[in-house]
Amino acid sequence: MLGNHSSATEFYLLGFSGSRELRHILFATFFFFYLVTLMGNTVIIVIVCLDERLQSPMYFFLGHLSALEILVTTIIVPVMLWGLLLPGMQTISLVACVAQLFLYLALGTTEFSLLGAMAVDRYVAVCNPLRYNVIMNSCTCNIVVIVSWLFGFLFQIWPVYATFQLSYCKSNVVDNFFCDRGQLLKLSCDNTLFMEFILFLMAVFVLFGSLISTIVSYTYIISTILKIPSASGRRKAFSTCASHFTCVVIGYGSCLFLYVKPKQTQAADYNRVVSLMVSVVTPFLNPFIFTLRNDKVIEALRDRVKQCCHQFRN
After folding, report:
1. d(CA 272, CA 26)
2. How many CB atoms lie within 10 A of CB 196?
3. What is the DSSP string of 161-176?
4. How many Å apart are CA 299 and CA 301, to the nearest integer?
5. Is 314 a domain residue?
6. Of 161, 172, 215, 297, which one's alpha carbon is 20 to 30 angstroms from that of 21?
7. Best CA proximity match to 36, nearest among 68, 90, 91, 73
8. β-strands 10-13, 173-174: how paired?
9. Beta bridge pairs of residue 90
10. By three-state DSSP, how is residue 33 classified?
11. What angle in degrees, to the nearest 10, is found between the helix axes of 57-85 and 20-50?
12. Nearest of 161, 202, 156, 207 to residue 184 by alpha carbon
């Protein structure tokens, strides 16, 4: 416990409760998820960089999305794994807590900006294919990616700064496996109602701002696909968007439950489950979504494996 109107210099992460055996099972499960996430997303980045068939805007954005997934999960999961091995609560310094929360939110904001840009890219590819290479040229793609990264990091400076300007006099025990903003606000002895409302509006701006471009793009995409006379043509057109659409549903669905709510100080168990979806499950699933449903990526991956096997035999 902290004294009245004092500021914490460190926090304790409560993490996961349960027996030692259960914590070891959780450790093994999350460690497996983390390794697959790292390997799967790294493979996508390498293939996109090396294979000439994947030198297009869609896969350029996919490479950056995979890099974001690696970074997001690396910011959260190693700390969580270490906490599962400790017998008690895990200590995290104020500086580490600030860095973790800022990077987590900044990378998440960047990811949603990029998902919105990918939706527009699919709209141009399906609805305006003859001008696709002109509109989505390398200069446009680079600008979109740079703006997405800058926006994500600049947008989260004030929310994180304001969070750690609060006085933490109630406790310094965070009821989550990482420095969750909702749980941090719970610990403050200040009146956070106005701040929570501002954070709610900012979350609405980020999520619905990128979601609107996604909804509008897919409205036009579906309308265009339905006008294609042949079933094979419709199937081929939709297959180019299926991976992105699946990723959007999982990503937006999780974050809408986590951040777009007027009351940021939600129940700890609720936040813990949704945070796992965002930081562990979604990055784990994305490599499978973008490879198993994409013929070009599967073909490129198969060729690279054959090439590696051939070189190994020689």
Report:
1. 14
2. 18
3. HHHTTS---S--EESS
4. 5
5. no
6. 172
7. 73
8. parallel
9. 13
10. helix
11. 160
12. 161
Q: Which secondary structure element, helix H or strand E, spans residue 307, and what is its range?
A: helix 295-313
CA pair distance 124, 243, nearest whole angstrom: 16
What is the DSSP-derived secondary structure letter of residue 156?
T
In-domain check, residue 139: yes
The mean predicted confidence, pLDDT, of the chain is 84
161 contacts 107 by C-beta, under 8 angstroms: no
Q: How many residues does the chain have?
A: 314
Q: Is the model's pLDDT at 62 over the cut of 50?
A: yes
The dihedral region occupied by 89, where left means phi > 0, alpha psi between -120 and 50, and beta the remainder, is beta
Closest CA to 156 of 63, 17, 259: 259
Structure tokens at 4: 């009245």
In a domain, 292, yes or no: yes
**Is 3 inside a domain boundary?**
no
- As a three-state string, the secondary structure of 204-223 is HHHHHHHHHHHHHHHHHHHH
Number of domains in the chain: 1
**Distant-in-sequence, close-in-space partners of 48: CB < 8 Å, separation ≥ 6:** 54, 59, 60, 62, 63, 66
**Strand extents, DSSP E, the chain:** 10-13, 90-93, 173-174
* pLDDT band (50, 70, 90) for residue 267: low
> What is each CA distance from 272 to 81, 160, 180, in whole angstroms?
14, 19, 9
Domain around 221: 11-303
Question: DSSP string of 88-106?
Answer: SPEEEEHHHHHHHHHHHHH
Question: Percent of the chain, pLDDT > 70?
Answer: 90
| Tens-place pLDDT, residues 152-187 | 999 999 999 998 888 887 778 888 889 988 888 888
Q: What is the CATH number of the domain that holds 242?
A: 1.20.1070.10
SS3 state of residue 13:
strand
Chain centroid, CA 193 distance in Å:
27
